[in-house]
Amino acid sequence: MRCEKCGQQVPDGSAFCNHCGAPMSIDAHCPSCGQSIPANSVFCPKCGKMVRNDMQEPVEEAVATTTGVTYHELEHERREPKPDPWQEKEQEREREHEQTARPYYSENDAADADDEYDEDNVSSEPAHFNRNVLIGAAVVVALIGLLLLLRNCGGSNDGRHEVTGSDSTLLVADSNGDPMAIFTAELSRNNFTGDGAVAAHAVKVPGNGTDRPEVIMGVTTKNDAENRSYFKIYKLTQNGQVWMPELQHTQYLNGRTVNMDNAALIADIQNVPRAVRVNDKDYYYFAYVNNPVEGGSIGRVSLCLWNVDEKKLTTLDYQGPIKSLDDGRQYVYGKPLQAINSAETRFLQNEARNVKLIHFLTEEELKAEQEAKEKEEEEKRLADPNNVDERWNQENQENVEALKKGEEVTIKAASYDKPIFNMKDIHKKIENEGYIVFSINNGAVYGFNKNTRKYFSIFAPKGDAQPSDIGFADSRNNQMRMRTSEGRFSYDLVTGKTKRIPE
Question: Does pTM surpass 0.70?
Answer without folding.
Answer: no
